[in-house]
């Protein structure tokens, strides 16, 4: 099968986000003048090492984007298997003045290098200062880039000096309503190593 996106695919559901999988979930927490906010974004990834940088994409003008524009900071929280339900609950469309941390029963802690909340129980959290927001083609598509200014890792996720994903089983987004949990890893050496 081949299709041109502008002509449609003819399938019952759009296959695009099922093709680009698995995708890590950026569980973005922010603070604005109307309170704290947290929401999951499945168009998320790390984009540079030095300095460390991340990006996520918002496909509507959500509260997260408004708060980041207001404050210039955000925090990315890693979603573990144990937190998958709270992550999903935090995706509810709630009024701007409702704190999703409270609504979804998520434990909150303060960030260290920025003025924003983070998920206290997350395996890791990345405190970020905004570097740029790009408006992408489409009605309300925005890519948000940030430089990591602080990194929190739970001590129980460190094994022999390595951040061990099998200690918390990260959740990733697939297509449609599907998610996956990492339960197995393997290593590959690059040619010449």
From TrEMBL:
Keywords: Monooxygenase, Oxidoreductase. InterPro entries: Flavin_Rdtase-like_dom (IPR002563), Split_barrel_FMN-bd (IPR012349). Residues 18-165 form the Flavin reductase like domain. Its EC number is 1.5.1.36. It holds the Pfam family Flavin_Reduct. This is Flavin-dependent monooxygenase, reductase subunit HsaB. It comes from Pelagimonas varians. GO terms for molecular function: flavin reductase (NADH) activity; FMN binding; monooxygenase activity.
């Amino acid at each position: 099968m081949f299709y041109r996106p502008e002509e449609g695919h003819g399938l019952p559901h759009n296959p695009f986000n099922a093709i680009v999988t698995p995708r890590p979930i950026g569980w973005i927490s922010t603070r604005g003048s109307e309170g704290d906010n947290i929401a999951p974004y499945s168009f998320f990834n790390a984009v540079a090492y030095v300095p460390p940088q991340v990006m996520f994409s918002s496909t509507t003008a959500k509260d997260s984007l408004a708060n980041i524009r207001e404050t210039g900071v955000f925090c990315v929280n890693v979603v573990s298997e144990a937190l998958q339900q709270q992550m999903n609950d935090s995706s509810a469309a709630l009024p701007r003045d409702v704190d999703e941390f409270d609504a979804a029963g998520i434990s909150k802690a303060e960030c260290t290098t920025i003025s924003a909340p983070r998920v206290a129980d997350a395996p890791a959290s990345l405190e970020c200062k905004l570097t740029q927001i790009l408006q992408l083609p489409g009605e309300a598509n925005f890519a948000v880039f940030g430089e990591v200014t602080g990194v929190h890792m739970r001590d129980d996720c460190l094994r022999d000096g390595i951040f061990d994903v099998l200690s918390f089983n990260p959740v990733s987004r697939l297509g449609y309503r599907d998610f996956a949990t990492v339960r197995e890893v393997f290593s590959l050496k690059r040619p010449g190593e």
